[in-house]
Amino acid sequence: MALETITIQERIIEKFGNSASNFGMQKDIFCFEITPDKVYEVIQFLKTESELNFHFLTDLAGIHYPDNDINEQFAVSYQLHNWIENVRIRVKTFLNGENPETKSIIDLFQCSNWMEREAWDFYGINFIGHPQLKRILNMDEMISHPMRKEFPMEDSGRTDKDDRFFGRTSLIKN
């Protein structure tokens, strides 16, 4: 019997109650939100529960929502895959904007190591318990997290390019 989204939802609600919310389909992926204090437990449950069997972490990504309430300015999105039933699921948790942190899932999925490091490097999301949370793509000396929307897209002090050649002026004078 195929794994149905209603079965997943019922099992999650049965185990986690009001900590889980906003169940629904988004572009053919079943999604729901979970409170940050329960995200580790729900990921573990999805992986270890034999009826659910989500043994593959496809992706883990940080997201910044600067216009949201301070308690929901950051999010971490986990995408899991049940290869046996070919079912995908997305679990999303919102984090506090002043101190975005959640528990690391590296002991559940070793591949989350680099994904968590990338989310920390670019968004400043702290993964509690991560064994080596340090820069992965940016320079170690960098003090900011460049994917946060509070930073400008480009360095205003750059002198090595002329915006006219990138279509950024309405009228180019000769």
Automatic annotation (TrEMBL):
SUPFAM superfamilies: Nqo5-like. Residues 33-155 form the NADH:ubiquinone oxidoreductase 30kDa subunit domain. PROSITE patterns: COMPLEX1_30K (PS00542). Gene3D superfamilies: NADH:ubiquinone oxidoreductase, 30kDa subunit. Pfam families: Complex1_30kDa. Its EC number is 7.1.1.-. Keywords: NAD, Quinone, Translocase, Transport. InterPro entries: NADH_quin_OxRdtase_su_C/D-like, NADH_UbQ_OxRdtase_30kDa_su, NADH_UbQ_OxRdtase_CS. GO terms for molecular function: NADH dehydrogenase (ubiquinone) activity; oxidoreductase activity, acting on NAD(P)H; quinone binding. Belongs to the complex I 30 kDa subunit family. NDH-1 shuttles electrons from NADH, via FMN and iron-sulfur (Fe-S) centers, to quinones in the respiratory chain. This is NADH-quinone oxidoreductase.
